[in-house]
Design a protein that fits this description.
homodimer; alpha+beta; 5 helices
Chain lengths: 250, 250
Amino acid sequence: MVNSKKYRMCIAYDGTRYSGWQIQPTSDSIQGVIEHALQTLLKEPVRLIGAGRTDAGVHALGQVAHFTIPAHLECPRIIYALNGMLPYDIRIQELTPTLDSFHAQYGARTKEYHYHIWIEKTMNPFLRLYRYHFHDTRFQLPLLQEGIKYFIGTHDFATFANLGGSVKSSVRTIYRISLHPQEGGFRLEFEGNGFLYKMVRNIVGTLLEVSIGKKQLSAINTLLEAKDRRYAGPAAPAKGLFLVKINYSN
Amino acid sequence: MVNSKKYRMCIAYDGTRYSGWQIQPTSDSIQGVIEHALQTLLKEPVRLIGAGRTDAGVHALGQVAHFTIPAHLECPRIIYALNGMLPYDIRIQELTPTLDSFHAQYGARTKEYHYHIWIEKTMNPFLRLYRYHFHDTRFQLPLLQEGIKYFIGTHDFATFANLGGSVKSSVRTIYRISLHPQEGGFRLEFEGNGFLYKMVRNIVGTLLEVSIGKKQLSAINTLLEAKDRRYAGPAAPAKGLFLVKINYSN
């Protein structure tokens, strides 16, 4: 009988040149690159289960994944060896043994995403891959702040979900959307019990249309009630989005 | 008689994919890219004079340059148009008319450079192009802090200058080298009346050798007295270095 062990991993990555988290047959995914490094190192096939499937170009500061393997691992040595093999835009931050009952995806209680917007005229060249440059003279912060309130709480977010997800229900709860000023603009922090495919980017896209008067505040309720993706605004670009933290119950 | 006007420009750039500031016949330089954009826009040949010739891979937050042109320029419109033409890793931050007597290079009173070092084991993947990752278990901050003191003041820095500069004297004055803790490590801020070719990177390279006990503190004086580049340690990599500010008398 093989006495398998479960390990939990925390990962940061710059998503710029990847097709997203999830492994795909024809392109470079974060999951694929890490699985390949683990397999080379441990000489065992390894399947990573990630907490959140970030899209192409989306970044992560605190992605969580788990994997099961027959061998006992010396975690500090494995982190060091993995980071030596991985490209510099993917870094393993933590690796710890975990309980058999832990599941990176199903065990997640809440997830936190940040969306970063640069509203000033001239972009900082060092942040060009990590901010959405949205400079519009019609921009009104109070409109955006009002718009945020419509999204907090439990809603059917079907209008704000792109097709491509595999979930049964499109009802989710957003506990918090907060706005934090920072160099050149602000970030929106989202915390919820789960997010549908492109949901954060679709909400941000609609909030920005509201902020420049292209959509009325009252339209947000209509959009939520429509439950139809075709009515929402365009998704905000991937590069402004960061998966920041996954919170677990235990 | 043409009534020429002089303009002063402040520029930020990510030096990662450039051969440096100075125009070169066969490769992409910051100066070349901006001159080309200016020429396309103004339909006049334009020669930029930069304050500091940053090397390949060195970044700038506050490079200053001047140029002279017969036409009167509407500065805000020109900045906007230039940034529209330039690649996203080069941004014009300011453009203002200046006195005929202004000279970006010869008028500079002091220059400030920052060198950023990441000493923790695991690098932040978003800073990989802007930090020198120097993780060494022998590292001792007090040794580095002692070493700094040897470089402050007026010295002949010939040992710390690579060949390739075109200056007559290698005597320079460093007014300040200060150490500032920051995420993952620290930065060294240098302010001086001028810096020789690769001087900051050579000083940092030697300071890091001192910090891990590879060179004795007392060796620094010997090195300065030798006035011979062959005795110094290796230059620290370009990616950690930022030209931050040029200070002028007026």
